[in-house]
Amino acid sequence: MICLENVSKTFTLHNQGSAVIEVIRDVSFDVAPGECVALTGSSGAGKSTLMRMIYGNYLTQSGAIRIGGVDLVQAEPRDVISLRRDTLGYVSQFLRVVPRVPTLEVVAEPLRALGVPAEAAQEKARNLLTQLNIPERLWSLSPTTFSGGEQQRVNIARGFAYDYPAMLLDEPTASLDATNREVVLSLIEEAKARGAAIIGIFHDEAARARVCDREIDVSRFTPGLSSSSEAVGQNKESAA
Amino acid sequence: MADYNFAYLDEQTKRMIRRAILKGLAIPGYQVPFASREMPMPYGWGTGGVQVSAAVLCPDDIFKVIDQGADDTTNAVSIRAFFERTAGVETTTATAEASVIQTRHRIPEEPLSEDQILVYQVPIPEPLRFLEPRESETRKMHSLEEYGLMHVKLYEDIARHGHIATSYAYPVKVEGRYVMDPSPIPKFDNPKLGDMAAIQLFGAGREQRIYALPPYTQVVSLDFEDHPFEASKADQICGLCGASDSYLDEVIIDDAGGRLFCCSDTDYCTGRRAAGHQGPAFPGSEVAA
Amino acid sequence: MTPLLSVQGVTKRYGTHIGCADVSFDLYPGEVMGIVGESGSGKSTLLNCMAGHLPPDAGQVVFDTRSEGPKDTLAMSEPERRMLGRTDWAFVHQHARDGLRMGVSAGGNVGERLMAVGARHYGDIREQATDWLERVEIDAARVDDRPTTFSGGMQQRLQIARNLVTGPRLVFMDEPTGGLDVSVQARLLDLLRGLVRDMGLSAIIVTHDLAVVRLLADRLMVMKSGHVVEAGLTDQVLDDPQHAYSQLLVSSVLQV
């Protein structure tokens, strides 16, 4: 379902003496439907960078990233957009929404974008929010004012609103309590069971062991893992 | 008045104006620019109408001037005198006798015939002007037939007053093409514009525009399906001649606020009274006195 | 799939100065494209060339018309192009004053485009105008008020209603949130996003506000000195800018 072939990535910092930093070199792997693969490696190894490349958020210099027949590296923006709408889900660590849009609509939005009628989409959103223990009184408020854990759960609900055939999960269980962690893990297991191909980053080792079928150590593909590339990675994350 | 050319204007100027008139007649409702001359009267006193009249008058014409329907107000008297002296034409107050009638803001009640010319004095020839101040834009709108704005004006009327409150200078569409300002005639007169036997010429001196309606032209007053055009007048009859079909002026006749409604067309009223018609103002006789 | 708008080699010079140079791109139905760049980068020139407000010196702006399919709008007759401007195209100005008739009521402003395409039933026009005021969150009771009595945000929403009432397929927006308070901006952005999704609109938005394009635009073009220096998916250009100027632009944004 997800297929990476000889994928490489460099950052060129034009405004910092045109420094060229190679962060990923020659990654190749496949993820089959129903399989969950964990990206591992020390902080700064490029896990998030690789995941963002697979989402099309970062530009890939060479190689191919094929998801459901589309090569993200070559694809036109509109192909990437439709891929993200129909095929590829992404739960990031950060919730980015239009201010003042109610939580229920934020969660229902991926379904609305697919043309699901408002009522059906909101029904699904209500179920997920209930499952993730977001109190009903918060549903009509914008999540921008929520606590970190609440925002994370809203983000997860949004990511799981539609049954994407392929999913990317960036630290889905971070900052969650035991109960909610359990809910998220079972959501992941359900997704696997229906045949979703999943790539995840989990610092939570127990969670990783429970849902992941195999691990890929990204630091193996990080040329000259050093302080400079680490600095770049952090810089990028904070800007995003 | 041997010092002046016939009808005041020199022959070259009259030719220029006649060319504009012919062009106007060829494109009914289209505003033809012309090189308006300084006239020995202020703008707003009918300089456009006077130039058009001067251009069409012949020595054997009989000339009539009406001002808001009346033959005897300052403007009418002055312009009549002007052409008596500069053209030496015969003048009249009788509508049926006149061959050229210059008018300010009225159409005579009596139907006109094919051998007559009606000349209107026009202050602002551009019907779109109030909503679109740019001349370059209004010209483009005319040439491309973009007349939605005209209905915006009527829409505003209904929104504000509950009905189309525009009661004079009511916009019309000519032969399904040009939207035209009929000069500030009451909308009561609008139905007379269309299918008229006489030639109608419109002159705007300050704005330097001439436009025209040839005989028997289709003229439609703009309106909405659910707010159709209505020609309205005061719901009274003439106090002097008793006419119920003519446009009425409301005249305050004493310090106590007494009012009299009477025909705005003085010739029409006089004619009816001469034929023996009498209005309700007479039996009391004090009112009429 | 046929692009809704196909821009090819659009160039505009002001004497020796370049307004925009050789800009080409395709916009597909339902796509929202942002154009960013500093003042003087040529983004407004480009927008005005595309919308038919400025004649470009070279290039084509091909629009997929309803009746005749793809057609170069620059080669169209003026009546045809202006008709397009009243029906399938809409233009939202930065300053609502430029896009509204300030002496005409809110209802008349919204109704004008309807009347321009032949609506002649007062009741229907008013009903549609009222409906649109509500869609842009303006109290229907204000249908007869003039825009001069509206706040800046309301004026901008009224301008949007006036533009969208004829159900256009392509909307050009020039700094639609410029000059508005931040809270008012958020409301407008939310509104625009909803309208774009529900009406399936395509839009081209010129702005210097990167937060606006991140929330509204699917795609982004970065312009500098009249040239397009980078184009791509909005989040990709903002998060992983490739060109020196884009990197500078992104890194210059103040973080809140």
The secondary-structure class of chain A comes to alpha/beta
Low-confidence stretches of chain C: none
Say how many strands of chain C there are. 10
The strand order across the widest sheet of chain A is 6-7-8-3-9
> How much is the average pLDDT of chain A?
87
Distance between the termini of chain A: 27 Å
Mean pLDDT of chain C: 91
Class of secondary structure makeup of chain C: alpha/beta
Please give the structural blueprint.
The complex is a heterotrimer of chains A (240), B (289) and C (256).
Chain A: E1 2-13, E2 19-31, E3 36-40, H1 47-55, E4 62-67, E5 70-71, H2 77-86, E6 88-91, H3 103-113, H4 118-131, H5 148-160, E7 166-170, H6 178-193, E8 197-201, H7 205-211, E9 214-217, H8 227-239
Helix pairs in contact in A: 3-4, 3-5
Chain B: H1 11-26, E1 32-33, H2 47-56, E2 62-67, H3 74-86, E3 90-91, E4 100-104, E5 117-121, H4 135-143, H5 148-161, E6 172-174, E7 178-180, H6 190-193, E8 199-204, E9 209-213, E10 219-221, E11 248-252, E12 259-263, H7 266-274
Parallel strand pairs in B: 2-3, 2-4, 4-5, 5-8
Antiparallel strand pairs in B: 1-9, 6-7, 6-10, 8-9, 11-12
Helix pairs in contact in B: 1-2
Chain C: E1 5-14, E2 17-27, E3 32-36, H1 43-50, E4 58-65, E5 69-72, H2 78-86, E6 89-92, H3 96-99, H4 106-116, H5 122-135, H6 152-164, E7 170-174, H7 182-199, E8 202-206, H8 210-216, E9 219-224, E10 227-233, H9 234-239, H10 244-251
Parallel strand pairs in C: 3-8, 3-9, 6-7, 7-8
Antiparallel strand pairs in C: 1-2, 1-4, 4-5, 9-10
Helix pairs in contact in C: 4-5, 4-6, 5-6
